[in-house]
Structures are given as structure tokens and as C-alpha cells.
Design goal:
It is a single chain. The protein has 97 residues and is an alpha/beta fold. It has five helices and three strands; from the N terminus they run H-H-E-H-E-E-H-H. It has a three-stranded parallel β-sheet, with helices on one face. The longest helix has 12 residues.
Length: 97
Amino acid sequence: MQRTQAFLATHSDARVYVNLDAVTYWSLLRHVALLIGNSSSGIMEAASFGLPVVNVGFRQKGRERARNVLDAEPEINAILARIGEGMSDDFRASLAA
């Protein structure tokens, strides 16, 4: 929580929401470039939007996933590499269909 608060203190456009209703959450997914985390939402809902996802760590191990999910070890260089891949024009174009 301290890291989150420190981030919010230095990024005036950042927000944290603990819970959102489904329609609000889905609406927000349409406006983001990439989802990062280890939530089942990245595995399940994000594929419907063609949204690149960097799935960090092993929490979702064994779950079926679509091609929009890029798995990353919980290490900064691995995460940054996957973010770069997920934000690339080629990768994003591959999700358009």
C-alpha cells in the first residue's frame, strides 16, 4: 500500500479503485492501452477487447488464456520487456481480429 500511495502522490492523473461494477469496469477497459497485473480479468475479460495483458507471476498458472496474454516473471526487466512487446504495433495488430 505504501508504494501505491507514493505513486499516487507523484502522479496526479493516477487513480485507485478497489471495486467497480462490471459495466464501469468494462467501459474503462475500452480506454486503456495495456493491462498489467495477475488478475483473472486479464485472462478472461481483456481478450474480448483485444487488450494486451502482461500477466505477472504465477497466480494464473494453468488457466487457459488467449493470445493477448503475455506472461512475465515477477522481475522488473521481464515485466518491462513484456510491456514493450505488448505495446508494439505488430502485437497490437495481431489482436485486432
